[in-house]
Amino acid sequence: MPITIRNLGIQPYESTWQDMQRFTQNREAETADEIWITEHPPVYTLGLNGKREHLLNTGAIPVINSDRGGQVTYHGPGQLIIYTLIDIKRLNLGVRQLVTTLEQAMIFALAQHGIIAVARADAPGVYVDNKKIGSIGLRIKRNCSYHGLSINNHMDLRPFDHINTCGYSGLEVTQLADLGVTVSNAELAIPVTQAIITALQK
């Protein structure tokens, strides 16, 4: 079954999250899977296990309690967000397999730009020289996934200084722009989505 790709542009976090919940609640056995490509205005999000002690000094940036997995992260303009609304039961896919698929898709896309990135068994996401460049947070409901991944591309990274990113004190972050790569989010999204779709359709 083909996967529908939607380019949403810049969208508020909360309404996009509600749209994902609605889509997942209303989908049926024959509903096609979807990939949503977007960016968000500045926002901190706390995952289901998120501890507010990891919010150090959020200032005027709003904090939203989300239903994804994981701890606290930051989203802002210039960060590529890809949401994967996938029927994992239909694909006979485990959650760990989906996480690995998303990590490998980011690693593949970064390699296209000469960046060597790795996944870590102890902390989901993708890292360059021990600095986090890509994050993953998922929710599984009715055997279907929503939320997805984020890649730091060309953004203001300073808001990460005001949280313990992903619940880790002192975890540094990086982005493509700081690694000498200039690419639009639309261009960066292409190899990421292609790698996800290729892996899911095997």
TrEMBL record:
Residues 29-202 form the BPL/LPL catalytic domain. The keyword Coiled coil does not apply. The record marks 132 as: Lowers pKa of active site Cys. GO terms for molecular function: lipoyl(octanoyl) transferase activity. The active site is at 166 (acyl-thioester intermediate). It catalyses: octanoyl-[ACP] + L-lysyl-[protein] = N(6)-octanoyl-L-lysyl-[protein] + holo-[ACP] + H(+). Substrate binds at residues 68-75, 135-137, 148-150. Its main location: cytoplasm. Pathway: Protein modification; protein lipoylation via endogenous pathway; protein N(6)-(lipoyl)lysine from octanoyl-[acyl-carrier-protein]: step 1/2. Its EC number is 2.3.1.181. CDD domains: LipB. PROSITE patterns: BPL_LPL_CATALYTIC, LIPB. One of its GO terms (biological process) is protein lipoylation. Keywords: Acyltransferase, Cytoplasm, Transferase. InterPro entries: aa-tRNA-synth_II/BPL/LPL, BPL_LPL_catalytic, Octanoyltransferase, Octanoyltransferase_CS. GO terms for cellular component: cytoplasm. It comes from the Bacteria. It is found in: Cytoplasm. In the reaction, the free carboxyl group of octanoic acid is attached via an amide linkage to the epsilon-amino group of a specific lysine residue of lipoyl domains of lipoate-dependent enzymes. Catalyzes the transfer of endogenously produced octanoic acid from octanoyl-acyl-carrier-protein onto the lipoyl domains of lipoate-dependent enzymes. Lipoyl-ACP can also act as a substrate although octanoyl-ACP is likely to be the physiological substrate. Belongs to the LipB family. NCBIfam families: lipB, PRK14342.1. This is Octanoyltransferase. The gene is lipB.
